[in-house]
Specification:
mainly alpha; 24 helices
């Protein structure tokens, strides 16, 4: 990917300021692609640089990523270092995020203490973030009046990403008790009473909440929008609400909503509806129905949802014991994945598994080899390339607005579950041991990866030898 190569070249240049910045931004890019191990390596490059700004930002980014994956102790350690810095903005952000991490780890009292400290610092968006999460704590305790009063101080404050999330959250709380007040928060004064404007306001806020991880609140707002929607917007709202239902494992509810959205015939909504309806049907074990829904999208020229549909269609056919029919769809998924690391990795792994199960070892390793090569390249951090950093990337020193952190952040719907591998984990690990003993290290890495993905590592033969 061009952006990743640009960042790597700047890291390798040894520039004292842009090098650490590039390392942190590359970590951000890799997180978005789901490549968390690689992201951690680059975040630590920025941290180890000791740069006054970017080492702190990288600690924050790494802490958020680790907390998202349940590694609360290491996240806490990183955040405490930032909280003890001399930068008031960075300290407030660190204490606010640490408070959310503690609450997510069921340490309520400590979490509230950190949130209160960040709120009392009165440092822009960082303190708004802390107040918003304190308000959510109050609401969870049934102190509705105090929660709404506190969140209004956020909504009425300096505009930021935090204020927009807080505004939508407060609107949802008012929807059934005071609909006019809810509308006033999301719709311009001149559009009040205009049903289409109200629906547009609810829809926009619902989509925004879904993107920032406030899934339950997004669902409530989308439900309200659907009740008021006309035929022009109902299908998109229904599709998004289906995505919400799917993300909380209400598969039958998701199936109904997404089926209705697809039946509406809106060409702009169809790719979204087909992708997530196909995924829902797959998770329900309805393989022929999933195939029927996904095929038109897989054959389309859509760029946003088609790559995932291709991968999913390959997995549907594999689960239906039709591996040879799955091959071309998985090849297409690899070809059109572009910068979507999750899709390309998933397609390569699924395809290689099927080929190995069919005895096509050389072809399987050819498909899998780029994943191994990427890992080897990242360990070197590509120090010898030279070019300039992408200046379109926003500068984000501590104390400025940062994305709203609502840990954990399920901003995207849960990934589609792969078809189960036909071999048991113990046998997969043993095959890895055999390949390793033969010096076939790439093949060994592949087998160990499969064993690890199913819950076991390279333990079988080694356990007997120890």
């Amino acid at each position: 990917m061009a952006a990743a190569e640009l960042f790597r070249s700047v890291i390798g240049s040894g520039h004292p300021h842009q090098g650490p910045r590039a390392a942190d931004l590359l970590g951000d890019l890799l997180v978005r692609e789901g490549r968390v191990d690689e992201a951690e390596r680059y975040y630590r490059v920025a941290i180890d640089s000791g740069h006054a700004q970017w080492s702190l930002i990288a600690r924050m980014d790494l802490a958020v990523m680790l907390a998202d994956h349940g590694e609360f102790e290491e996240a806490e350690r990183l955040l405490l270092v930032v909280a003890e810095s001399d930068d008031p903005g960075a300290e407030a952000w660190a204490r606010g995020v640490l408070g959310v991490v503690h609450i997510g780890n069921e340490r309520q009292e400590e979490g509230r203490e950190q949130l209160q400290a960040a709120a009392d610092a009165d440092v822009g968006a960082a303190s708004q973030f802390a107040r918003f999460h304190l308000a959510k704590c109050l609401a969870a305790d049934g102190e509705d009046e105090a929660a709404e009063a506190l969140v209004r101080t956020v909504v009425d404050g300096e505009p930021s990403q935090v204020t927009e999330v807080a505004r939508a959250w407060l609107a949802v709380r008012l929807l059934h008790r005071d609909p006019e007040a809810a509308q006033a928060l999301l719709v311009r004064v001149e559009d009040s009473g205009d049903a289409e404007a109200i629906v547009a306001g609810y829809l926009g806020a619902g989509e925004y909440l879904l993107e920032t991880g406030e899934v339950q609140t997004a669902g409530e707002l989308l439900e309200a929008a659907l009740e008021l929607a006309g035929p022009g917007t109902a299908s998109r709202i229904g599709a998004l609400l289906g995505v919400v239902r799917r993300s909380v494992n209400d598969l039958e509810g998701a199936r109904e909503l997404l089926t209705d959205a697809l039946a509406a015939g809106d060409p702009e909504t169809e790719p979204l509806a087909r992708r997530y309806l196909g995924s829902t049907l797959f998770r329900l074990g309805l393989l022929p129905e999933a195939e029927e829904v996904l095929l038109p999208l897989a054959r389309s020229d859509d760029t946003e949802h088609r790559p995932q549909a291709l991968l999913l269609l390959g997995r549907v056919l594999a689960a239906d014991n039709r591996p040879e029919e799955a091959y071309p769809w998985l090849e297409a998924a690899i070809e059109c994945a572009g910068g979507d690391g999750d899709t390309e990795t998933g397609a390569r792994q699924t395809y290689a598994e099927l080929l190995l199960s069919a005895g096509q070892r050389e072809r399987a390793m050819e498909i899998y080899r780029p994943l191994v090569a990427d890992d080897e390249d990242d360990e070197d951090t590509a120090p010898d390339e030279e070019t300039a950093i992408d200046e379109d990337t926003p500068h984000r020193p501590p104390g400025t607005d940062r994305p709203t952190l609502t840990l954990p952040r399920p901003a995207r719907p849960a990934p589609d579950a792969p078809a189960p591998h036909p071999l048991p984990p113990a046998l997969l690990a043993l095959l890895g041991d055999v390949a390793d003993a033969e010096g076939a290290h790439e093949e060994a890495a592949f087998w160990y990866g499969l064993a690890g993905r199913t819950g076991e590592g390279r333990t079988t033969a080694q356990a007997h030898d120890s």
